[in-house]
Amino acid sequence: MYSQGLIGADDSTHEDEEFLARFQARIDAEEKIEPNDAMPQGYRKTLVRQIAQHAHSEIVGMLPEGNWVTRAPTLKRKAALIAKIQDEGGHGLYLYSAVETLGVSREQVTQELLSGKAKYSSIFNYPAITWADIGAIGWLVDGAAIMNQIPLCRCSYGPYARAMVRVCKEESFHQRQGYEILMMLCAGSDEQKAMAQDALNRWWWPSLMMFGPHDSESTHGSQSEKWKIKRISNDDLRRKFVTATVPQAEFLGLEVPDPELKWNEKTESYDIGPIDWDEFWSVVKGNGVMNKERLEARNKAWDEGAWVREAANAFALKSQEREQLEAAQ
Amino acid sequence: MAKANDDLFEYLIRLGDDHLILGHRLSQWCGHAPTLEEDLALSNIALDMIGQARSLYTYAGEVEGKGRSEDDLAFLRKEHEYHNLMLVERANNDFAHTIIRQLFFSVYAELLWEILSTSGDEKLSQIAAKARKEASYHVRHSAQWTIRLGDGTQESAARIADAVKTMAPNIQEMFDDDAVLQRLVQTGVIGDVAVLKAAWHISIAEIFSTAKIDTDLLETVAIGGARPGRHTESMGHILAELQYMQRTYPGCQW
Lengths: 329, 254
Ligand SMILES: [Fe+2]
Ligand SMILES: [Fe+2]
Prior knowledge:
The structure holds 2 protein chains of 2 kinds. By secondary structure, chain A is mainly α.
């Protein structure tokens, strides 16, 4: 996945009006913007911020699921879980490459993740405590990610849009795999079914928060929408997600933990109860159960890998020198 | 005939356990590797290891004929019933230890699969032919890193030397002979494994020479060996994690 509503974007821009109008005309004509094209500073900055946040989310998202690799209940599930986490790492790689097309290096944005300055999807600050959580993450978290990302396939920035096409295919596979884990649990023992219900109880609301604040609260939405980076509003995406997901929960025989959930004949979608935005902002600000561990794990991997990366660079340099020497002789 | 099947079962279990436990170790890197590229590469190798373990266990279950599945064999045995090499239990420690452990095992595995790909046992020869291709990728990956780290910085060279010292006592166990192997050679299930040791040392010496690693580090007193059921202290912890779900919720489908 995993983008959430972009947090803290600065889309201010200082170009003259003629330039901006010409750029907007290209956007309105649904032309894709490519790396070497002229673009407003604000457009570039918004994209760097959003794609980097998205990439970081893929990478941090490897941790809660990685926590279950050594304990997966069967060899088939273990292999599928490793392959899924590997896909997420791959998504991180494409997305960092997309950031690089905007003139910012992977190292730069990585440093911002490690220092805690950059954000990633807050959902990964929740703990994955049972095997059912692996099912719920695939079903709900990857599911919400797909909802967010399908419109990004039509994003005005070419490299991001193209990365999303490939990523979305893999995400839908992850979602099916997660759902299948829960189907097995729900067809199993009482204890297994209770495990599935417990996971839904804990992951439901955080999944809905993945779409970001309500449209009425969202300050940067409109410019992003005008530039066709974001094409569907947070609330519309959330509504679509709930409407697609509730019947899936019913099929499993699980209860969605929202007493106010109600079908709305007029909109042909579900109305939901109030989202606890205090919890959302608290987790965004670093007070989730796992915020500290997630950042520590990323920093530990980075710090302990430093000597490896240095050695690889030193070796590459030596090899180059040896080649030049041979060529000279 | 029963005896022949017992031997083949035992052999499949040994190989399956090697791959399962090494795959388990590698999978512990998932999300924690020195680079994103290595996260993907180590996961790939872990996946191959687990895939090979699955084929070997499935076949072992068929040979045994008691209806045990790959998961019964992977998750529901006691510690002493796992017959893997101690080498594969060795801790991940740092990236150098992980790479040297992999190099030692994969060079061995590639040579072994090559021999087994002409096994008189058709099923085993099929498993071996597929696994051999995967093993040669693993050899390439770990050899490249051995060379980069051996000939990288002073620190990386020191870490690689330390890793070689840690793993060297577990070289000999890969080549230990016993009655099971002898009978399997006699019946043509496995080819001449006596050549493995020399071939392994030739390959490693070549890689070490490029990597500027002293081959004297390989000369050491062997620890462990002659397989059945001997383990390091790590094994109990590995099994505690590996078996957690199957032991906590017996008889469930997942
Ligand atoms: Fe992803
Ligand atoms: Fe995914």
